[in-house]
Amino acid sequence: MDEDEDEEDGLMYASAPMILDEKGVVYYITKYEGQCTIMEVNPKNDEIHDIIFEIKSDLCLGFSYANGYFYFMDDFKVINQL
Prior knowledge:
Layout: E1 3-5, E2 12-14, E3 19-20, E4 26-32, E5 35-42, E6 45-56, E7 62-66, E8 69-73, E9 79-81
Antiparallel strand pairs: 1-2, 2-4, 3-4, 4-5, 5-6, 7-8, 8-9
């Protein structure tokens, strides 16, 4: 996955897909200082971004959602089911 750094806050935003679930909540990945974080935001109230999962990993190689579970692939190519 490609990554872009936001000069304003120093966070790395992976070009992983933003996932929209059946309730209308959006999930996305951020990377900061060796931590990859799955964030959750409700588009109706986009001022609140909640962390739902955080893992120590230099890269996020994959991120998906299926059958009510998130799948996250870290830099060691280990797939974590959340």
